[in-house]
Amino acid sequence: MDVTTAIAQSLKEEGVEYLFGFPSNPLFDTGAAEEVGIRTIITRQERTAAHMADAVGRMTSGEGIAAFACQHGPGTENSFGAIAQAYGESAPLVAIPAGYDRAKTDVDPKFNSLVNYQHVSKTCEQLTDPDAVGETMRRAFNAARNGRPRPAVVEVPKDVFYEDVPDFEYERPSVSRPGPDPSGVDEVADVLLEADRPVIFAGQGVHYAKGWDALRELAETLEAPVATSLNGKSAFPETHPLSLGAGSKSEPGQLAHFLREADVLFGVGCSFTSTAYGITVPEDNAIVHSTLDSTDVNKDVHADHALVGDARLTLEALVDAVGERLDGGSRGRFDDVAAEIEEVRDAWLDEWRPKLTSDETPINPYRVVHELTEVVDAEDAIITHDAGNPRDFLAPFWESTEPLSYIGWGKTTQLGYGLGLAMGAKLVHPEKLCINLWGDGAIGMTGLDFETAAREDIPILSIHLNNYEMAAYDTPFSGDFADVATALGGYGERVEDPDEVAPALERAIAETEEGTPALLEVITAKETELSRPDLDG
């Protein structure tokens, strides 16, 4: 067999179900991936394809790695941003870009993935020896799956794809889950039990570790409130009496209230990276930091105590240690903490109810979010959004109830990210209603890939908040995107009356249930007010 076939067989042995990307790459062009039973999905542009692979990795907690492939030269250049995004968001995937022939790979100005992708990937190799296909692919999947999940890149020069590989046999790498230091667990258990007002802050690592049950058990045992990062949103049910919601640029009022008064902040499965899209870590309190990646400890935030290890193993160890110390007893404060959360939350919602129920036209975007929460059953949905206002309008008010039902992110994010995430999520969970919420800038970046959803039978619900400008930048845009959606093979509808938002949502959802992707274009006001509770009180 040749290198192309050997790579395809490696992907199959790794359990890869989807290869996303864009020709020309021999994995697509020769049919090698399809011949071994891998579904190939061609997108309108490379970035969307990598975003779909990103979503598959996240939706399967890193177990279902997807692959991405593209053309040498412009294909690798176009996809750079998406791989960088996956790296920043710790999303696992394996990228197999083609490269120029070995004789030309280092000739300026040809784009060399080996050189250029090193800073946006966990590992980056160039496959130049046909005999090394197995070990190279094994290293890539080992890197993507073990430790902190991130993209692994294997660049294959064009001429290498067609080289012969004798006697090929692929062996999958093992998967490891490191646990925390037992003595550190005992120390942290004492710190948490001695705290008067502890707060748990859960990040995306809880999703990858599938530590949802252990997180809930620890919170209920400690009778401590739980906040999440935007990446960690849905790791703890936001309808739970101890939920504080997710920290972001826009967040619910109860979160800042409890962070302000916390004497111990326990971060688990998070990096505590300083960002405008995360929590502001309060000062003058104790910080306990549990993470899989030791390089995150003391990176931006000084940790008084640290536990390095898998989030679920860490949480389970703490549940046992705290339980032993309580010896079946209760701290006796659950009702008081829950009542305080409810009181602050209700007061915050009262402040925002006029916008959430506004009858103004153009439609207030908060009214769209409110109707979405009323029409959609969160237990049956997976939702994501794009950067800027769609994120800021949605995140505080959408309550996620099931693990992995919200796809968030924690750094500056390229516009158009949400569409690929929603499509990837729909492939993993065809039984779910998968939604992306975006604005004018985002739909301009990747909107034509709505055609990919129609062509590939991926019936997502896409909601475009159209205020004819890009956020607060006063940059005018125009276009009738409902008509565009229809022309691209989906269902499109424009909504201008606030009382029609809910009926339009119901019609669009019905279309997705029939197998047609739907796009609602809602004409909205130029809303600028965000929920930014003051941590200083």
UniProtKB/TrEMBL annotation:
Organism superkingdom: Archaea
PROSITE patterns per the UniProt record, alphabetical: TPP_ENZYMES
Pfam entry (one): TPP_enzyme_N
Thiamine pyrophosphate enzyme TPP-binding domain: residues covered: 386-522
InterPro entries: DHS-like_NAD/FAD-binding_dom (IPR029035), THDP-binding (IPR029061), Thiamin_PyroP_enz_cen_dom (IPR012000), Thiamin_PyroP_enz_TPP-bd_dom (IPR012001), TPP-bd_CS (IPR000399), TPP_enz (IPR045229), TPP_enzyme_TPP-bd (IPR011766)
Any one of the GO CC terms: acetolactate synthase complex
Signal peptide positions on this chain: none
Domain Thiamine pyrophosphate enzyme N-terminal TPP-binding: 1-106
Keywords: Thiamine pyrophosphate
Domain Thiamine pyrophosphate enzyme central stretches: 185-318
GO BP: any one term: isoleucine biosynthetic process
Coiled-coil zones: none
Stated family: Belongs to the TPP enzyme family.
Name by which UniProt lists this protein: Thiamine pyrophosphate-requiring protein
Originating organism: Halorarum salinum
